[in-house]
Amino acid sequence: ITHRQLEPLHLLTESAERIARGHYGETIPDSRRKDEIGRLQYHFQQMQRALAERMSELQQSKETLQERNEVLKLAYTQTQEADRVKTSFRHNMTNQMTGPADAIVKSVTKLCEHYHDNTRQETANNVDVIQQEGQVITDLLNSLIETAESEKGKEEYV
After folding, report:
1. What percent of the chain has pLDDT over 70?
2. What does the pLDDT read at residue 150?
3. Dihedral (Cα; 76, 78, 79, 85), 10-degree rounding
4. How many CB atoms lie within 10 A of CB 67?
5. Exposed, middle or buried by CB within 10 Å (0-12, 13-18, 19+), for 108?
6. Residues of 137-155 as b/e, b for ≥16 C-beta within 10 angstroms?
7. Positive or negative, the Cα torsion across 66, 68, 72, 78?
8. Secondary-structure breakdown of the chain: helix, strand, coil percentages, each rounded to the nearest 5
9. In angstroms, rounded to a whole number, what is the distance separating the alpha carbons of residues 4 and 10?
10. Rounded CA gap, 3 and 5, in Å?
11. Per residue in 65-115, pLDDT tens?
C-alpha cells in the first residue's frame, strides 16, 4: 500500500530530476489525486510550464541579441571602412596641396630675397605663380568643403 501511495511521488521525483538536468520540455503527468501529492504534482506542472516558457523567451532573446550583434558588427566594419576612406581622401587632398604650397613659398622667397634685383617680368611671373598655385589650393579646399557638406547631409538622413 505504501509503495502504491508513494509511486506518484517517485515518478514526480524522476520528472523533476530530468528537468533539473536541462530537459525543460519534460512533461509532468497529470494526477487525479486530491491529496498533498496531487497538489505537489499540480504545482510542479505549473512550475515546469513557467520554466519552459521562460526558457523559450530567453532563447528568443538570445537569437534577437545575436541578430542585433551581427548588424552592429557590420555597421562597425562599415564605419571603420568609411573612416579609412575619409582619412585616405584627406591625405590625398593634403598631398595635392603640397606642390602648389611649395611653389608659392619659392615664389614668395624669390620676391622677398631678390626684391631689388628682380625685373618687372620676373616679379610678374612670381606673382602669377603665386596666384595660380593659390587658385589650385583654393579649388582643392572647395572640393574638400563640398565633400564634407555632402557627407554631413547624408549623415542627417541616417
Report:
1. 96
2. 82
3. 150
4. 10
5. middle
6. beebeeebeeeeeeeeeee
7. positive
8. 85, 0, 15
9. 10
10. 5
11. 999 999 999 999 999 998 898 889 888 888 999 999 999 999 999 888 887
**pTM for this prediction:** 0.55
Contact 146, 127 (CB under 8 A): no
State the number of CA atoms in the 13 A half-sphere of 47 facing the CB.
Answer: 12
> What is the rounded distance in angstroms from the CA atom of residue 101 to the CA atom of residue 76?
37
Quote the cell numbers at residue 151.
557627407
Confidence grade of residue 131 (pLDDT, cut at 50, 70, 90): very high
Is 41 in contact with 13 (CB distance < 8 Å)? no
**Banded model confidence at residue 153, pLDDT cuts 50, 70, 90:** low
String of DSSP letters for 51-116: HHHHHHHHHHHHHHHHHHHHHHHHHHHHHHHHHHHHHHHHHHHHHHHHHHHHHHHHHHHHHHHTTT
Q: C-alpha cell of 89?
A: 581622401
- Position 30, amino acid: D
